[in-house]
Each structure stands twice: as structure tokens, then as C-alpha cells.
Task: structure prediction
Amino acid sequence: MDNTLLQDPNAEQAAYWNGRVGQRWTNRQDFMDAVLAPISSAVLDRAAAAPGEHVIDIGCGCGATSLELAQRVGPSGRVLGVDISQPMLARARQRTPQGAQLAFEITDATIYPFAAGETDLLFSRFGVMFFAQPVQSFANLRTALRPGGRLVFVCWREPRLNPWLVLPVQAAYQHVPKLPEMSPEDPGPFSFATPDRVRRILDAAGFGAVTMEPRDFTLDLANGQGLDAALENALEIGPASRALDGQPAELQLAAQHAIRAALAAQQVGQSVPLGAAVWMVSASNGV
Ligand SMILES: C[S@@+](CC[C@H](N)C(=O)[O-])C[C@H]1O[C@@H](n2cnc3c(N)ncnc32)[C@H](O)[C@@H]1O
Result:
């Protein structure tokens, strides 16, 4: 990654998403896209990208939503996916059909010099909660929006409302130490769980008409492929994988058994359906 496009406070996140975690997301791209599909459809419908529109997909990762957005804006529109993760963006580029009106930039969205005022829609599926200085990041993103342009993203609500993410790690805690407590201001998956904080950030970045709609989903952690698939996913993505990283082999094994038992208790046929809770956030530029 070009270091001139990396804002220092986000260096830790850049290392995180370019290391083992980014590689795991890349390896599991198909599976994760299938698990997250119900949320994707809902946020894409909410964003209502129309033919001819210019869109930026923030923290686009392996590009699932960028590809969907490109289909929606059609040949007269344009989509730019931005992300700090080299492996994830390489996967996004690999998936892009020839001739699609879709480009990707490896960059920190906080400081990327977006073309001013040309974008109709700033969009994100879980890619905006990792900024160390979110007001600065959103203010920079807003420079890309035309007057009256819109921001639409989805982010997680509190951990206790998201068993699909926390049930495995809670089971793991029977055997491995707890992950360090995060402050509500620390970048991370739950950093936008509190509506007051999100509104404060978006207000300070100059957005108006902020709305936050709570939505509940059931996600199949097994993606219809049985208990082993759900276990494998929990061990690769999310807080359980982080809690097990670097632990002695016997503790990892014991934690894996505990996670398996917790997931088995939720199993229905070949699925492991678990609750997920998000905010659908929208805002506008200057209204
Ligand atoms: C949870 S992943 C979501 C990826 C993708 N939107 C999806 O739903 O599959 C978060 C993404 O945000 C990206 N990200 C984190 N901080 C960023 C920053 N400052 N600028 C651009 N992307 C960033 C990460 O590299 C990662 O791809």
C-alpha cells in the first residue's frame, strides 16, 4: 500500500486487515457473502442506487456489494470501491467482470483525495466502524458527495444482540482468556453500536437528516452446510478466532469443543440460525 495514502492513526487497522484477518476474509469470501446476504439485500434496497449514479463503496473488502452496486447503476453509472486491505481488494478485482463500470483503490478512506462533489451515494456494508478519527474520515468522504447526495451504511448494534458473533466467543471463554475490553470510542465492529455516537460523528462531519433504523436478522452461520461449516467459520472470522489466536494447542482444542457444543444447541437441520442486529443508517449532504 502507498504509505502516502495511509493516515497514521489507522496504521494499526491497516496492519490488521492486511495480515491474517484480511487473508481469512479473502479465503472465506464466498461463505461470508452467503451468510451476510440477507443484510446485503436490505441495505442495498435502502440505498436504492439508480441507473447512471456515481457510488463509492467504503471499506468494500472483497467487493460483493461493489459488484451489486455496479449492476444497479448500469453502464451509465460508476462505482469506486475503496479499502485498505491488499488481499481483499485483490479478490474484489479478480471478481470484477471485464467492462464493468467498477474501479477499486487501495487507500485509507480518511485521506483519499476523492473527486469533489461528483458522487451521488456513499455506501458501506460494515466498512465504516474502523476509523481511528471517524469525524475526519466522514468529513473527507463527504467532500466526494454532490450537494443533496446521500450516505447509506449498515453497522452492528450491541454485542448482546448479535449472538451470531458473540455466542462462539462466549463458549470459547470457558477455556481461553477474554479479549481486552474495548472502549466505545475504539475502532472495531461494535464502535457504531450507540446511536448517540454515530449521530455525533455524522453531525460533526457535516451530514444532515441522519436516520438510524434498527433491523433484526437471522443469519445461518452454517450457510446450509452443517455444524462443521459453522464451526470452521467461527474459528476463522470474528471474535472467537481472535480469542483463540496464539493460545496453547490444548486450550484451543478445548475451546473448539465448547464452541461446537454451543453451535450444536442452535442447529436446525444443516443450518445454525443465529440472531444479528444492525443499524441501517442514512444521512444526506447538506439537507
Ligand atoms: C468487516 S470488513 C467489511 C468488508 C466488506 N464491506 C464486506 O461487507 O464484506 C471491514 C472492511 O473495512 C476496511 N477498512 C477498515 N479501515 C479502513 C479505512 N480507513 N479505509 C478504507 N477501508 C478500511 C477493511 O480493510 C475491511 O475490508
